[in-house]
Automatic annotation (TrEMBL):
<dbReference type="InterPro" id="IPR037523">
    <property type="entry name" value="VOC_core"/>
</dbReference>
<dbReference type="Pfam" id="PF00903">
    <property type="entry name" value="Glyoxalase"/>
</dbReference>
<dbReference type="InterPro" id="IPR004360">
    <property type="entry name" value="Glyas_Fos-R_dOase_dom"/>
</dbReference>
<feature type="domain" description="VOC">
    <location>
        <begin position="4"/>
        <end position="121"/>
    </location>
</feature>
<dbReference type="InterPro" id="IPR029068">
    <property type="entry name" value="Glyas_Bleomycin-R_OHBP_Dase"/>
</dbReference>
<protein>
    <submittedName>
        <fullName>Glyoxalase-like domain protein</fullName>
    </submittedName>
</protein>
Amino acid sequence: MSYRRSIPVVSALSLEESLRYWTSVMGFHQCFSYGDPPVYAGVERDGVEIYLTHDPNLVTSMKEAGSHPEVFLWVSDVRHSYEEHRARGATVVEALTDRPWGARQYVLEDPNGYFIKVAEPIVPED
């Protein structure tokens, strides 16, 4: 037996709004949805999948507590991603910068209060 992949599940106050965010702002495409109206859905970009679930009670509790769960995305060109997300209207919480742990990253906030960290490794110059 071996593990093959991990897919984060993001809780949503409004699944429709979250789908719009992940497709229009983050550039993912919708893979599936379940229910009528939808209560569960999946989005994908470049082999990276995120599942979304309608859970207004959890999102409300997170917001009341000031909690910001995180989704971390590694990309191959973080500067390009940063400009793309800004142009698409993303809420930038932390601008693109080099971090002491060897990552160049920025942080976005989705409509449900999740922090989306987007990064690439910093390659040391020879």
